[in-house]
Amino acid sequence: MMSSFVNFKETENNVKHPNEYYMRICIEEAVKAAEEGEYALAALIVVGEEIFSIRHTSLHSSVDPTGHAEILAIREAAMKVGSRYIIGGYLYSTCEPCPMCAAAAIFAKMRGIVYGANQLDAKRQFLLSQGKRHDWRQIDIRAQYVIERGMPRLELYPDFMREECLRLFQCNQ
Asked: CA 69, 167, 57: angle at the middle one, nearest 5?
């Protein structure tokens, strides 16, 4: 564990968010997830210019209903930071975080969330996939709704590289 990061202070860097480089890494990880029989979803945490974690869903392999990519990435980054707070961190996800995942980013005092496909896209996929192994269940509460009611208020960058992220749904057909 890297306890030197416990009192991490944001530093100026040249990274602007949203950033295509980080979302492309998420997309590659989501493809890996699908190849392993998981939902084609991935997330990463970046602080400054450093990627602290890259994870994909583990719902099928771990039989853990909280095995969402975002939760796993936040847990891993918190372990690396040595604190439950990931100050200055950005959560990148190939799909809009569910209420649990958006709340976890708030509780971790992150700076922002960047996501690709949105909940409406996932709901459409749910209608197409009922009865299949990957059925894309949803809770009808948007990430923006959670963020607007949370403290601290996170930056939100919706629908970033959405078209590329939408193609990931085809990996689970």
From this structure: 15
